[in-house]
Amino acid sequence: MADQTGFFGHPKGLSTLFFTEMWERFSYYGMKAILMLFMTTEVAQEGLGLENETAGAAYGLYAAGVYLLTLPGGWMADNILGQRKAIWYGGIFIMLGHLTLAIPGSTAIFFSGLCLIAIGTGLLKPNISTIVGDLYPEGGARRDAGFSIFYMGINLGSVLGQVIVPLLAENINWHLGFGAAALGMFLGLVQYRFTQKNLDDIGIVPKAKLDPSGEKSNNTVAIILAAALVGVIFLLQTLGIVDLTTAVGIRDTLGVVIVLITAFFFLYIFIGGGLNAEEKKRMGVVVLLFIGAAIFWAGFEQAPTTLTLFARDLTDRSVFGLFEIPSGSVQAINPTFIIIFAPLFGALWIKLAARNLNPSAPLKFAFGLILMALGFLVMVKAAEIATPENKVGLYWFVLTYFLHTAGELTLSPVGLSTMTKLAPAKLYGQVMGLWFVATALGNLIAGWYGGEFDAESLDQMPSLFMSVVWLGLGAGIVFLALSPIAKKWMGGVK
Questions:
Q1: In terms of DSSP H, where are the helices of 172-315?
Q2: pLDDT per residue over 390-399, tens digit each?
Q3: Phi, psi torsion values for 316, nearest 5 degrees
Q4: Rounded mean pLDDT of 239-243?
Q5: For a Cys staple, 157 with which of 24, 26, 64, 364, CB 3.0–4.6 Å?
Q6: Burial 222-254 (b: 16+ CB within 10 A, else e)
Q7: What is the average per-residue pLDDT within 108-115?
Q8: pTM above 0.90, yes or no
Q9: Residue ranges in 239-276 assigned as alpha helix (H)
């Protein structure tokens, strides 16, 4: 077991994972900050020149694909590679993807780069979070605190990426920005390779080999369900219910696919997972948290879509008249707040737990969803007064991102930690992958909202944002009502 006193009173291995994730998030969020802008910029200005609806669909497909692939990424680690190798190979794919984006060329080359990044992130994301959980076998509030520190690394990388990459991309050259993202992932790989000793033997052996019970039946069920999924998609295409010939159609189809995959995965777990009654109840809570996370990210992940386009077209981004913030860098407000407030939230959970007052994960989800909704309520007002001639100030974004940050800290690191506690040991990586599938679905919906953004139809914008307010508030109220039952089903997991 790794040293328990090496990194701010936490295991030394947390520092390895902290900085690996920091550089990976530098590359991911730096590129993501300019992605929608690059796709909607005219060809004459070296962009792709896509319409908002097509660009929004393409963004949603990419962002959803990134997180959807965490499910097979978790399976690969659990059954074949182990978490350590999955992180390493995932980082290599990510770096190669950003290098591909840095090459000026056709739209096909650009989307090939996005595919490489999606594959790499699918391998890296669920498995690095799994190892963080493995550092705390005792569980409890200390694990929540460890995830909050880990979350600071995510957002430190996000701030750096969303400041540096848009500055290079919007002021010098788009592809130079993509190249900077590749450099960030390279630094993360170097750091990971030279500090792996901090992890001892954690993540080397695939978890299925540690607990192989039920493996054969699980694989049989998985094959049957995968074949059923392919058949359903083929039937939907034949009946004309889905359309695979356009970006918008593919996006809508992927939404159907994600819902079907999730349903089939839970069916696979409950039928062929070899779970006892207590484990099935805990997986029931996982289902609930999955739904809550998907709704939260549907609102929150509009930062790179509707909110960035609003910042570009309808926001005065000058700071005291001295300089103008790149539109992609406005998103950096959120991770900056994360860095400031994450330690406070981590300390808060420990203090509340010491007094037996720590809210359950479902109750924290309710708070997070409501805070996300309130952030969009601010944007409703901003949309009511903004015009291209009378742009709103950055303070609207500061208030919105403050509320979104509070919601994120209440929901996201707690969700990560709770998934590691609720997951059966032999399905650890796959359940972590499921957490990111919820993010995939949320990103897909966020891309749909981005496609609906139209700076020339300002009268529609308040209602667009208001629909997100009602979605978040409604879900938050439902979680408040269900939290006592969900807490009971968690069976003592805190």
A1: 174-195, 207-210, 215-238, 247-272, 277-300, 308-314
A2: 888 889 999 9
A3: -80, 110
A4: 63
A5: 26
A6: beebeeebeeebeebeeeeebeeeebbebbbbb
A7: 84
A8: no
A9: 247-272
